[in-house]
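From the shared-data thread, chain only:
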Amino acid sequence: MNAHKKGIMYGILASISWGTIWPLSKYILECYPSVSPFYIAFLRFFSAALAIFVFFVIKKDKAWFTTLKKYWRLSLVLGFFGIFGMGCLVFFSIKYTSTVNSALLMNSNALFIILFSVFIGERITKIKAGGALLGFSGCYLIINNGLAFNFFSSLTLKGDLLAIAGAVCWAVYTVIGRAKVKEVDSAHLSSLNFFFGSLMILALTLFLKIPATDILKPVPFIFVVFIGLIPTAYGFTVWYYALEHVEAGTLGLLQFIVPLMTTITGIIFFHESFTKITFAGMVLILAGIYVTSKNAGIKPAGD
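Structure, as tokens:
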């Protein structure tokens, strides 16, 4: 398997793992309404940073300190957009809208990634544009359960806008990471991003004097730590590996897998309905991913 195909595979694995975040988070926020999204975001990323740090200690990886010394400024920027910004916004969006809306709107960041990637020398090809159009059409069908336009209904407007803001933050994180990732070990950079970003979240939480109610109860604590270890520690690290070998615009489209996974888990665990429109939306999402990934022969910018 060549590096490009391996990068696509890791991008898919990361996206699948991220698909578990929305249903687990929604369960916590509905069953434990006193739990603040700020504490969920903090514990998620802090536990991820801690897990990777322990891994470095076991491996006796001292190069992490060199990365810290050389790239701490970059990690502060990435931590602000990808961890502090995206992390807080996505959990608040889940609080105010449905898991499907939040996941689909958050993962529309592929469109922003394609737009922003122009600034790091990537081209918006017809294949990328076509794949994005197919994927977004699938997202539209699933959200609206048809063709009628009710994308920003009054009941979910706040959560929908928060999810879009999270999508913009993640797009900036991905594009900046794509521009710099070849210079630094992806696991080192991810751990630093998690650490600095989680401290920013904690600082804001303490500043606002938000009580840590119920977050340490067994169920929410276990669920959040799972989100920290699997979708976050593992997912973000392999995502950065994928960025080393795949264009940011192409990789971003793979994130349409996340709303697909959110829909599937909603059907299995929350007994949500599975309609013909939902099926059609999934087909369009997968078609968008296939069309984009088929263009695998293009070399990533900077290679």
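Residues 3-293 form one domain.
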